[in-house]
Specification:
alpha/beta, 20 helices, about 500 residues, globular, 11 strands, four-stranded parallel β-sheet, about 10% strand
C-alpha cells in the first residue's frame, strides 16, 4: 500500500484501497500473512504464527496520540518509497517505535483499542509471553536464531524466568507493539466489513525454524535436542525450480499432534479466525503427504514423500471450529490422494489461469474445465504478473493464448481477468498488478530466490489508475453475475 513511512500500513492508504475495491464490487481482499518477518523478509518465514508485523502499524495514529512528534517521522519519510527497502526500514523504524513505546509506558499504558493493554496481554498470554521474551532474547543475542543462543536461554521453560533488565524492558516493548497492531487491525477489519469487504488471510502450513513457536513448543516439531533440524520441509523439483525447494522449516511430529488432538493447530486457526473472514491454507497437499528432506541436505532433491494426517486432522479441526472458512492451496504436484483429501474435506481448491498454458498436459487449469468448488486466480504472489508472463511466453504458447482468448496482441492482462470472472469458479481473485496491467517490475516473489522479493508497493499514481478501473470492474461483476446475489446459497467459502 502507498504511505509515507517506508512501507504500507493500516492507515489512510489501505482504507482508500478498501474503498476502491468495495466500489468495484469485490467481496473479499486476499492478503499474504501479516506476521513479523525474519531473514529474507518473507511473510512465509515469520517469528510467530500469532503475532502481527509491527512495521504495519500506522505511525500517524501514534503521532496523533502524542506518543511521537511529527518531525521524528522524517527519517522514514526520507526512504525511497517506490519499493520497500527493508534494510533502511529496519534502521529507521525501530528507534522511533522504541521511543513511542517508552512514552506510552510512561503514561500508564492508556487504552487505545477495544480492550486495555492489560486485558490484551491476559487474553493472549498463551503466545504473547513467549513471543515477547523470544524477541527480547533475540535482541540480547544480536539477532541470532534461538538454537545459537547461550544454553541458559535455549529452553523456554528455563528462560521465561529471566530477569535481566534489558530483557524485561524489551519484552514489555514487544507487548506494546502487539497491542498497537491488534488494536489497529480490529479497526481496519471493522472498516472493511462496514463496506461489505471480507478479508482472506493466509496460514503458511510450516513455521520458521527461528520462531517463538518452535522455541516454545519443541515437542510439536522434529528437531534435535540442541535445536538442529532432523528433517526439513520443502518441495521436489518442479515448474519453479529444477533443484526443488529446501525451505529450512522444521516438519511436524504428527504423532504427537494427533495424541494432543491437534491443540497447537487449533490455537493457530483460532488466532487467524480473529483476524480474517476466510483463510487460504498454504501447501494443502502436505496434509496428504509431504516432502521430507534430511536436515543436512544442500537442496531438496534427496527428499522423500511421507504420509500426512489427512482427514483425521480436518475432522478434528471442523469439530472444534465449525465456523472456520478455508481455501485449499492445492498447487504443485497433486496426486490422487491429495485430490481425494480435498474432495473429502469439502474445501475449494485453487486454479491458476497462467498454469493452463504450457504448465501441464492435462488442461485442468483451462477455465472451461474448472469445477464450481474452486477459486480461480489469474496468478498468485509466486507468479510473475500476467502482463510480465505474457511478454515472455514462447511462440507456441503465444499462439495458443491468442486463439483461446481471441485476442491479437498479448500486451494486456485483461483477457485473463475477464476469463477468471466468467468462469464457474465460486470465487475469482485477481492481483492488483493485473487489474492495472503492470509488468514484471511489479512481481512480488520469485520462489527459490532468497533476496529481492516482497518489495513491491502500489504507488499513489497506481492507486489512481486502480480507481480509474472501478467502472470497468463494476461492469465485469455485473456481466458475470458476481454481484453477491447468490452468496447465501452458493458462494460461501466454507467446507
Amino acid at each position: 500500500m502507498p504511505g509515507d513511512y517506508g512501507i504500507g500500513n493500516m492507515g489512510e492508504g489501505t482504507r482508500r484501497f478498501i474503498d476502491l475495491i468495495a466500489q468495484a464490487g469485490f467481496a473479499f481482499w486476499q492478503i499474504c500473512p501479516v506476521g513479523p518477518t525474519g531473514y529474507g523478509d518473507s511473510p512465509y518465514q515469520s517469528f510467530s504464527t500469532h503475532a502481527g508485523n509491527a512495521y504495519l502499524i500506522d505511525l500517524a495514529e501514534l503521532r496523533d496520540a502524542g506518543l511521537i512528534a511529527d518531525a521524528e517521522l522524517d527519517p522514514l519519510r526520507a526512504i525511497n518509497g517506490a519499493y520497500v527497502d527493508y534494510g533502511e526500514l529496519y534502521q529507521r523504524f525501530w528507534p522511533i517505535a522504541r521511543k513511542a513505546a517508552a512514552n506510552y509506558a510512561s503514561r500508564g499504558f492508556p487504552q487505545m483499542g477495544r480492550r486495555s493493554f492489560e486485558e490484551f496481554c491476559s487474553e493472549n498470554g498463551h503466545w504473547l509471553d513467549a513471543y515477547a521474551l523470544f524477541m527480547a532474547l533475540k535482541e540480547l543475542h544480536g539477532g541470532r536464531p534461538w538454537h545459537q543462543w547461550d544454553e541458559a536461554f535455549k529452553d523456554y521453560g528455563q528462560a521465561k524466568n529471566c530477569a535481566l533488565p534489558d530483557v524485561v524492558a524489551e519484552r514489555t516493548r514487544q507487548k506494546i507493539y502487539q497491542y498497537w497492531f491488534f488494536s489497529q487491525w480490529e479497526r481496519l477489519h471493522d472498516y472493511a466489513r462496514s463496506r461489505n469487504v471480507g478479508i482472506i488471510g493466509d496460514i503458511p502450513i510450516f513455521v520458521a525454524h527461528d520462531s517463538a513457536d518452535v522455541w516454545q513448543n519443541k515437542e510439536v516439531f522434529r528437531i534435535e535436542a540442541d535445536g538442529r533440524l532432523q528433517v526439513s520441509a520443502g518441495v521436489p523439483p518442479d515448474y519453479f525450480s529444477e533443484f526443488g525447494q529446501y525451505w529450512g522449516n522444521p516438519l511436524y511430529d504428527w504423532e504427537h499432534l494427533a495424541k494432543t488432538d491437534y491443540t497447537w493447530w487449533k490455537r493457530r486457526f483460532e488466532s487467524s479466525m480473529k483476524l480474517f473472514d476466510a483463510i487460504r491454507l498454504d501447501h494443502f497437499r502436505a496434509f496428504s503427504s509431504f516432502w521430507e528432506i534430511p536436515g543436512s541436505a544442500q537442496d531438496a532433491r534427496t527428499g522423500r514423500w511421507v504420509k500426512g494426517p489427512a482427514m483425521h486432522f480436518f475432522d478434528s479441526i471442523y469439530k472444534a471450529l465449525p465456523s472456520v472458512r478455508i481455501i485449499a492451496e492445492d498447487l504443485g504436484y497433486i496426486d490422487e490422494d491429495v485430490y481425494k483429501l480435498r474432495i473429502d474435506s469439502g474445501l475449494p481448491g485453487m486454479k491458476v489461469i497462467q498454469f493452463g498454458f504450457g504448465h501441464d498436459a492435462n488442461n485442468v487449469n483451462l477455465p472451461h474445465f474448472y469445477p464450481f468448488n474452486s477459486v480461480v486466480y489469474t496468478g498468485t504472489h509466486d507468479n510473475d504478473t500476467t502482463r510480465g508472463w505474457l511478454s515472455r511466453v514462447d511462440s507456441h504458447i503465444a499462439g495458443k493464448l491468442r486463439d483461446y482468448f481471441d485476442c491479437g496482441n498479448l500486451d494486456s492482462a485483461w483477457p485473463l481477468v475477464r476469463a477468471a470472472f466468467l468462469s464457474v469458479s465460486r470465487l475469482a481473485v485477481v492481483p492488483a498488478q493485473d487489474i492495472i496491467n503492470l509488468g514484471s517490475e511489479a512481481r512480488m516473489n520469485t520462489p527459490g530466490v532468497a533476496s529481492g522479493n516482497w518489495k513491491w508497493r502500489l504507488s499513489p499514481v497506481q492507486i489512481d489508475e486502480f480507481a480509474a478501473m472501478v467502472p470497468k470492474l463494476s461492469a465485469l461483476h455485473a456481466i458475470s453475475d458476481r454481484t453477491g446475489r447468490l452468496t447465501q446459497t452458493h458462494y460461501s467459502v466454507s467446507p
